[in-house]
Design brief:
mainly beta, 27-stranded antiparallel β-sheet, six-stranded mixed β-sheet, 6 helices, 5% helix, 66% strand, globular
Length: 696
């Protein structure tokens, strides 16, 4: 731990090494536009706009990269996550990848040669059409299309335990037509996960304490299959239909022992647990966009899905000496879901900027059918969200701006209640260019959010003796007011962003323990708290001491204060110093990366949870069309997850989980990619998705 803290301080101190310089950019062969936000300054590698940063790449970076994915990893706020084998933001949150404006996957980006990448647009303030989908959006802009074929595959696996990441893709372009097929799998099978759980509480005048130690065998298989067809004519129209399916299965089976204490009398209990869930939602996505002259464009998008997700839990606890059952939970949940999203958007280019307007409707119906020893319960909820929006983006001298206003209607209907809310949702982004490599930006927005089906469902879930969990169908909409003041500075050696943020959530949905069932039990349930808030500073960026990729230090540091005021008037507080660091080096065809963090507790409802610990090192070697990978994850430690309640909680709980299978986990991987020609250029303006699967 001392070594990690020292390295963190060294990383922070190294930010002072920056000096200003510039690198050449790749020339853009795409048709020029009059949109003022898209003008690049050729003497800079990075250009900051009001809602995004635009990166271009020098000849050295293009030569070292095998495909477009490698270029993404050079961005200061993006990194390769070795656990999921995907690109992620060092700031966390949801990440969306586009290619020429159309929603894409990293497998598609692997089919793009680096020399065909003109620039990469990094949105930390996504435009309205993407804002409901992701916290960070990256758009890869490529050169004009040619007929061609691209395909590839890769796999990485641990040698001593069940850990496999695999991908395969193929794209074929012929004239206006493009056909693509992709497959990805993440497989886990661990048989040595150890958990300690402690519950401590007073109930009906007696003091209870449960201390359980359990070891279980758990795993999951997560598969994604995508088949798409695109027909496009550059500068005229785009039509795409895409069918995708996410096939997910998980299980957990374990045994343990528990010391159950009531007042001063203790008993030795045995415990067993078996649970699992599975779903395979099919999704059909149809998109059409048409140019209406030189300055106007209209786009349509419809996404639909219908499926059933299944979950089960079987838990038992008994007195070892007598075999008397003290806790029995046998539960099955079937959730039938039907979701559809439709959107129409219109854009018009003015000389001083761009106007974007649109309407989106999202309907998700969930029918929960729960069976357990307490009986059968059916609960249905229908979520309907409508969003009408318009925004204008432009620039006046050094002042950049994006001003938008929307009207959001959220209508949630259950068998017991109906909630209808209309909210005006303004958003303003102002940016000012201090110097050619420094800028100041301010963002403020107001957005309503609907509670999830788990929070609304009154279904009862047994947890341990005397404690259950249940939802609250009377929850109302929560509304977020988010504010950010961001300072950016960059040169050849240094790329730095400092973001002062304040987020306020009115009627915040918060979990808590309450007395239940005539004060004979406790229930973990939900309420609309008075508010929750987050205040802090997030500092992200990268340092290149030599001005190239020979050594790169990336850091994300975010001291934060959290506050939640409950309906009872109690004020919950939590302060933390969030952090994660990446140190990488590239020399010719060899790259080496080390990632680490110091886990911290963050407040989530009734609990404080630590983020996943990191201590990973991995290397890649590229030989023509081949990539060879090796590494060791969680060096010297298992992956560890801690959770505990605050002092104000009626039930004091603490839990620690260690997955010993992945301690010092050694990985080997191999990949092969080839491409002939280039894919059709598609500029898709709308990107939507249906609701995720409902489980416990």
């Amino acid at each position: 731990m001392r070594k990690q803290i020292s390295l963190a301080l060294l990383t922070i101190g190294s930010f002072t090494l920056a000096q200003e310089t510039s690198t050449p950019t790749v020339q853009d062969s795409i048709q020029k536009t009059k949109e003022i936000q898209e003008v690049l300054i050729k003497t800079q590698r990075k250009k900051q706009y009001v809602d995004k940063a635009v990166y271009s790449f020098d000849e050295e970076a293009l030569k070292k990269a095998r495909y477009a994915n490698d270029l993404l990893q050079t961005l200061p706020e993006l990194q390769f996550d070795p656990i999921s084998s995907k690109i992620s933001s060092i700031k966390g949150g949801k990440f969306l990848l586009l290619i020429n404006g159309i929603e894409s996957t990293e497998l598609q980006a692997r089919g793009i040669r680096p020399e065909n990448v003109v620039r990469v647009e990094y949105y930390d303030n996504p435009p309205t059409r993407w804002a409901n989908r992701a916290d960070t959006v990256v758009n890869i802009i490529t050169r004009n299309p040619e007929v061609g074929f691209a395909a590839g595959t890769s796999v990485s696996t641990a040698l001593t335990t069940g850990f496999v990441n695999g991908q395969a893709y193929a794209n074929y372009t012929n004239g206006r037509n493009n056909i693509g097929l992709e497959y990805a799998i993440n497989f886990r099978d661990y048989d040595n996960r150890a958990t300690n759980r402690i519950y401590d509480y007073y109930l009906q005048g007696s003091h209870y304490n449960t201390n359980e130690n359990k070891t279980d065998h758990f795993g999951y298989t997560d598969q994604d299959i995508t088949l798409r067809y695109t027909n496009s004519l550059s500068g005229n129209y785009v039509f795409q239909t895409k069918f995708s399916m996410n096939i997910y299965n998980s299980f957990s089976k374990g045994n343990g022992q528990s010391i159950f204490t009531k007042d001063n009398v203790s008993e030795q209990h045995g415990t067993s647990q078996y649970s699992g869930e599975k779903y395979s939602p099919p999704k059909l996505d149809i998109y059409f966009s048409k140019k209406l002259g030189k300055k106007d464009e209209i786009s349509f998008n419809v996404v639909g899905s219908a499926y059933t997700s299944k979950s089960f839990e079987i838990d038992k606890e008994w007195v070892i000496n007598t075999d008397n059952i003290v806790f029995d939970n046998d539960m099955n949940l079937k959730a039938k879901q039907k979701s559809i999203v439709g959107e129409v958007a219109y854009t018009h280019d003015f000389e001083m900027g761009k106007l974007s307007s649109g309407y989106r409707i999202d309907n998700n119906n969930v029918n929960n059918s729960l069976e357990n020893l307490a009986g059968n319960f059916d609960f249905s909820v229908n979520y309907l969200t409508q969003y009408l929006y318009s925004e204008f983006a432009g620039k006046s001298k050094k002042l950049m701006y994006r001003i938008g206003v929307g009207l959001t209607n959220i209508h949630n209907k259950t068998a017991t209640t109906s909630n209808d809310d209309w909210t005006i949702t303004p958003k303003i982004i102002l940016g000012y260019e201090l110097k050619k490599n420094q800028s100041l930006r301010f963002t403020s927005s107001y957005t309503p959010y609907s509670p999830g089906s788990t929070a609304l469902s009154p279904n009862i879930n047994q947890i341990v003796p005397n404690i259950v969990s249940t939802g609250n169908p009377f929850l109302t909409i929560q509304k977020a007011w988010n504010n950010n003041l961001n300072y950016s500075y960059n040169n050849k050696y240094f790329d730095f962003n400092a973001n002062l943020f304040y987020n306020y959530l009115d009627n915040a949905i918060n979990s808590m323990y309450v007395l239940y069932n005539n004060n004979t039990q406790y229930a973990l349930t939900y309420e609309n708290a008075q508010f929750s808030s987050r205040l802090g500073v997030q500092m992200t960026g990268s340092v290149k001491p030599f001005g190239n990729r020979l050594l790169v230090i990336k850091a994300n540091i975010y001291p934060t204060m959290q506050r939640v005021k409950l309906n009872s008037g109690a004020l919950l507080k939590n302060n933390y110093f969030g952090n994660n660091f990446t140190i990488s080096s590239e020399y010719k065809n060899l790259s080496l990366t080390y990632m680490f963090n110091i886990p911290v507790y963050t407040l989530s409802g009734a609990f404080l949870n630590t983020n996943e610990n990191q201590n990973h090192i991995f290397a890649n070697y590229k030989l023509k069309d081949w990539t060879f990978t090796t590494g060791m994850y969680w060096i010297g430690m298992p992956s560890r997850y801690k959770v505990k309640t605050l002092d104000e909680s009626l039930v004091n709980y603490s839990g620690v989980t260690n997955i010993y299978n992945n301690k010092n986990m050694f990985i080997l991987g191999i990949g092969y990619d080839f491409a002939k020609g280039k894919k059709n250029e598609v500029n898709r303006k709308l990107n939507n998705s249906t609701a995720p699967a409902t489980t416990f």
